[in-house]
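Researcher: Re-running this chain for the archive, since the previous output was lost when a drive failed. Same request as before.
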Amino acid sequence: MSAQQKPVPSSMAITLQIVSIVFYTFIAFLCIGLPIAVLPGYVHGELGFSAVVAGLTIGAQYLATLLSRPMAGRLSDNLGTKRAIVYGLAGIFLSGLLTLASTLLQALPLLSLGILLLGRLLLGVAQGLIGVGTISWCMGQVGAEHTARSISWNGIASYGAIAIGAPLGVVMVADYGFEGLGLALSVLAALALLLIRNKPSVPVIRGERLSFRAVFGRIAPYGAGLSLASIGYGTLTTFITLFYLSRGWTGAAYCLTVFGVCFILSRLLFISSISRFGGYRAAIACMSIETLGLILLWLAPSTAFAMIGAGLAGFGLSLVYPALGVEAIKQVPSTSRGAGLSAYAVFFDLALAIAGPLMGAVALNLGYSWIFFCAALLSLSALGLTLLLMRRADA
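Model: Regenerated structure tokens:
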């Protein structure tokens, strides 16, 4: 090896570099997971609003993430990935304070809901900044050839945090009341801000950048498939608590945990399948499994079947994002990587933003079980679109 050549990092060294960055995704999604299983019941039961309003309260966060994606991409590309994450953590800190204020004003339902919604919007913007910042930082640190691994570990951090946060939030509310949720969010964000201070970021890539509109057009076909497949996730996380209540069941938070555990196992065991079989084929296989899981949730006669369905849905959805993402990011230059990641993520955000009100309306008219049937049909549509994209790429 010549003196000019650098040693190639081992697979473990690359993974450790990625994990040290997606740690901040873990913190962000732990803050998202803590209230996710208890907020719908709080809005519906404690504040007295309908299931549609409960869905809108959750969906508002994802809508804010969606609308902030262009800003997140530009900030990451122009000012640096670390700056984007710092701004996101500051947003979570403020969201925690607003959530605390909302619970203290429970006697004034409309005011409490308004403050809670503002906190959810801030949390959504923070999610967008941290999500784009961490993946772009990982790709800049370990190279674009490790895109699938960067996206996958970021997903492991996010869904793992949801799996831990959802039941932890239930326990926290049972022991300390809803007031503890907002305080926990602010404390976690403050600790993460202290840890990130001395961590060096990657240099900003110089060069001509595509407009977000141009990037969006290149990414859109892949993002549409991601959006259709991801509505099942938004449906599960938003309405699983109310679905369980409608059946007289308990333990909805553990259903989210099963989803998260199966999601993580799938990524750990089968992430190499994307490079082995290609992004399209991996996505098609995963969408098939996800659809089966959603159908089981629709037909579930007991909590055991519901958990199996949630596990299959998590196992199937796990590789959809990185599999289609690998194909999508190929469509944009490295100078617009942040914009490409944010444009692709817009479609995931869109799925989560519309899942609440859309499936809330379905639940009001048909019942909670039918929301999973509708989500299964949308997942099947995503599978068909991915088949068309694969045929176009092979032509």
